[in-house]
Amino acid sequence: MTDPYAVPDMDELLAQVRKQTEEVQRIQRTVEAMEVKAHSRQNEVSVTLRGDGRFTSIDIDPRAIREYDARNLSEIVLEAVNAGLQKLAEASSAKFAPVIAAAKEV
Predict the structure, then answer these.
(1) Contacts for 83 with CB less than 8 Å, ≥ 6 apart
(2) Are 27 and 99 in contact (CB under 8 A)?
(3) pLDDT in tens, 8-67
(4) Kind of pairing, strands 55-60 and 35-39?
(5) Cα angle: 65, vertex 69, 74; to 5 degrees
(6) How far apart are CA 26 and CA 96, in angstroms?
(7) Would strands 45-50 and 35-39 be described as parallel, antiparallel, or unpaired?
(8) In 34-69, which ranges are continuous DSSP H helix?
(9) Which residues 6+ apart lie within 8 Å of 63 measured at CB?
(10) Which one of 1, 30, 65, 67 is least enclosed by Cβ atoms within 10 Å?
(11) Which sequence ranges form a coiled-coil region, renumbered to this chain (predicted)?
Protein backbone atom coordinates (compact mmCIF):
# COMPACT_ATOMS: atom_id res chain seq x y z
CA MET A 1 0.00 0.00 0.00
CA THR A 2 1.34 3.44 -0.93
CA ASP A 3 1.66 6.03 1.81
CA PRO A 4 -0.50 9.04 0.77
CA TYR A 5 1.61 11.27 3.03
CA ALA A 6 4.97 10.26 1.59
CA VAL A 7 7.11 13.09 0.28
CA PRO A 8 7.82 12.68 -3.45
CA ASP A 9 11.42 12.42 -4.60
CA MET A 10 12.19 15.99 -5.73
CA ASP A 11 15.12 14.97 -7.92
CA GLU A 12 12.88 12.53 -9.78
CA LEU A 13 10.15 15.16 -10.19
CA LEU A 14 12.66 17.72 -11.49
CA ALA A 15 14.05 15.19 -13.94
CA GLN A 16 10.54 14.49 -15.25
CA VAL A 17 9.85 18.20 -15.63
CA ARG A 18 13.11 18.72 -17.52
CA LYS A 19 12.37 15.79 -19.80
CA GLN A 20 8.86 17.07 -20.56
CA THR A 21 10.18 20.60 -21.16
CA GLU A 22 12.78 19.29 -23.60
CA GLU A 23 10.14 17.25 -25.41
CA VAL A 24 7.81 20.28 -25.70
CA GLN A 25 10.66 22.41 -27.04
CA ARG A 26 11.59 19.72 -29.58
CA ILE A 27 7.99 19.48 -30.78
CA GLN A 28 7.72 23.27 -30.94
CA ARG A 29 10.76 23.40 -33.23
CA THR A 30 9.25 20.77 -35.53
CA VAL A 31 5.94 22.66 -35.62
CA GLU A 32 7.67 25.94 -36.45
CA ALA A 33 9.56 24.25 -39.31
CA MET A 34 6.38 22.66 -40.67
CA GLU A 35 4.83 23.99 -43.87
CA VAL A 36 1.12 23.69 -44.61
CA LYS A 37 -0.68 24.24 -47.90
CA ALA A 38 -4.40 24.88 -48.27
CA HIS A 39 -6.80 25.94 -50.98
CA SER A 40 -10.12 27.63 -51.44
CA ARG A 41 -13.08 25.37 -52.13
CA GLN A 42 -12.63 25.45 -55.91
CA ASN A 43 -8.82 25.90 -55.84
CA GLU A 44 -8.90 29.47 -57.12
CA VAL A 45 -6.56 30.49 -54.29
CA SER A 46 -3.75 28.50 -52.70
CA VAL A 47 -1.90 29.53 -49.56
CA THR A 48 1.26 28.25 -47.90
CA LEU A 49 2.09 28.99 -44.30
CA ARG A 50 4.74 27.95 -41.85
CA GLY A 51 4.24 26.49 -38.42
CA ASP A 52 5.02 29.86 -36.84
CA GLY A 53 1.87 31.27 -38.50
CA ARG A 54 3.61 33.27 -41.24
CA PHE A 55 2.23 33.01 -44.72
CA THR A 56 4.94 32.36 -47.28
CA SER A 57 2.76 32.51 -50.37
CA ILE A 58 -0.71 33.28 -51.62
CA ASP A 59 -1.34 32.24 -55.21
CA ILE A 60 -4.43 33.41 -57.10
CA ASP A 61 -5.48 31.74 -60.32
CA PRO A 62 -5.47 34.41 -63.06
CA ARG A 63 -8.89 33.22 -64.22
CA ALA A 64 -10.29 34.04 -60.78
CA ILE A 65 -9.01 37.62 -61.13
CA ARG A 66 -10.92 37.98 -64.39
CA GLU A 67 -14.01 36.12 -63.20
CA TYR A 68 -14.67 37.65 -59.75
CA ASP A 69 -15.06 41.16 -58.50
CA ALA A 70 -12.85 42.41 -55.65
CA ARG A 71 -15.36 41.57 -52.91
CA ASN A 72 -15.88 37.97 -54.05
CA LEU A 73 -12.19 37.45 -54.64
CA SER A 74 -11.38 38.70 -51.15
CA GLU A 75 -13.87 36.18 -49.71
CA ILE A 76 -12.16 33.40 -51.67
CA VAL A 77 -8.76 34.50 -50.34
CA LEU A 78 -10.13 34.51 -46.78
CA GLU A 79 -11.54 31.05 -47.32
CA ALA A 80 -8.10 29.74 -48.32
CA VAL A 81 -6.36 31.59 -45.47
CA ASN A 82 -8.81 30.23 -42.89
CA ALA A 83 -8.42 26.72 -44.33
CA GLY A 84 -4.66 27.07 -43.94
CA LEU A 85 -4.92 28.25 -40.35
CA GLN A 86 -7.30 25.38 -39.53
CA LYS A 87 -4.96 22.87 -41.13
CA LEU A 88 -2.02 24.31 -39.18
CA ALA A 89 -3.96 24.12 -35.91
CA GLU A 90 -4.87 20.49 -36.56
CA ALA A 91 -1.29 19.56 -37.48
CA SER A 92 0.06 21.32 -34.38
CA SER A 93 -2.46 19.58 -32.13
CA ALA A 94 -1.50 16.23 -33.61
CA LYS A 95 2.19 16.89 -32.89
CA PHE A 96 1.50 17.87 -29.27
CA ALA A 97 -1.11 15.14 -28.60
CA PRO A 98 1.35 12.59 -27.14
CA VAL A 99 2.75 15.12 -24.66
CA ILE A 100 -0.73 16.22 -23.61
CA ALA A 101 -1.84 12.61 -23.18
CA ALA A 102 1.24 11.82 -21.10
CA ALA A 103 0.62 14.85 -18.88
CA LYS A 104 -2.95 13.72 -18.22
CA GLU A 105 -1.71 10.32 -17.05
CA VAL A 106 0.45 11.86 -14.33
Answers:
(1) 38, 39, 40, 47
(2) yes
(3) 788 888 888 898 888 888 888 888 889 999 999 999 999 999 999 899 999 999 999 999
(4) unpaired
(5) 80
(6) 10
(7) antiparallel
(8) 62-67
(9) 44
(10) 1
(11) 10-37
Is the separation of the CB atoms in 38 and 83 below 8 Å? Answer: yes
- What pLDDT, in 10s, does the model give residues 64-98? 999 999 999 999 999 999 999 999 999 888 887 87
Nearest residue to 42 (alpha-carbon basis) of 6, 68, 5: 68
pLDDT given at position 50: 93
The amino acid that residue 53 corresponds to is G
From residue 102, how far is each of 16, 19, 24, 33, 64 by CA, in Å?
A: 11, 12, 12, 24, 47
Contact indicator for 39, 78 with CB cutoff of 8 Å: no
Rounded Cα–Cα distance for residues 81 and 48 (Å): 9
Q: Pick from 105, 104, 91, 99: which is nearest to 37 by CA? A: 91
